[in-house]
Design a protein that fits this description.
Blueprint: E1 16-17, E2 22-23, E3 30-31, E4 46-47, E5 53-54, E6 60-62, E7 66-67, E8 74-75, E9 80-81, E10 85-86, E11 93-94, E12 99-100, E13 105-107, H1 111-147
Antiparallel strand pairs: 1-2, 2-3, 4-5, 6-9, 6-13, 7-8, 10-11, 11-12
Length: 148
């Protein structure tokens, strides 16, 4: 089997070929191996504790309780930080007032997406309920017409 190239964006080794392009499932990058590959050395590649690629503006959650050095304050597990910024250094995630390491964070699910899906599902159930009522009405009307 041929050796697949590493992703030029995130250097992931889990790459597959989809007849035209190579695709990286980790960062979603697609490229053609014949084309000139653009490398952006300025871009930070930061992954959370689950291996998901983090970007500026993401929402993240803590995966465990963390004590802040020099303070009696404790950051609780599942605490959410919105609109993060990625920076260079040991603590590579800027959460506003606090700098954290990405190994203690996981990417948060966007709530808006869940609400949109719930609305679509409720709407689908309403439409299918109306279709069932119309079908029953039609079926009953044909039954009554045969009796008359």
């Amino acid at each position: 089997m041929d050796q697949m190239p590493a992703c030029p964006k995130c250097q992931s080794e889990y790459v597959y070929h989809d007849t035209v392009n190579f695709v990286c499932p980790d960062c979603g990058n697609e490229w053609n191996n014949n084309e000139q590959i653009e490398t952006d050395d300025d871009q930070l590649i930061v992954k959370d504790s689950n291996g998901n690629l983090l970007t500026d503006g993401d929402d993240v959650l803590l995966i465990k309780d963390l004590k802040l050095k020099g303070s009696s304050e404790v950051l609780k597990k599942e605490q959410k930080f919105k609109n993060i910024r990625l920076v260079n250094g040991d603590h590579n995630v800027d959460c506003g007032k606090i700098m954290l390491k990405s190994e203690f964070l996981k990417k948060a699910i966007i709530n808006r997406f869940l609400f949109q899906n719930r609305f679509i599902i409720k709407r689908f159930h309403l439409i299918s309920s109306i279709q069932h009522v119309l079908f029953l009405f039609f079926h009953l009307s044909t039954c009554f017409s045969t009796l008359l």
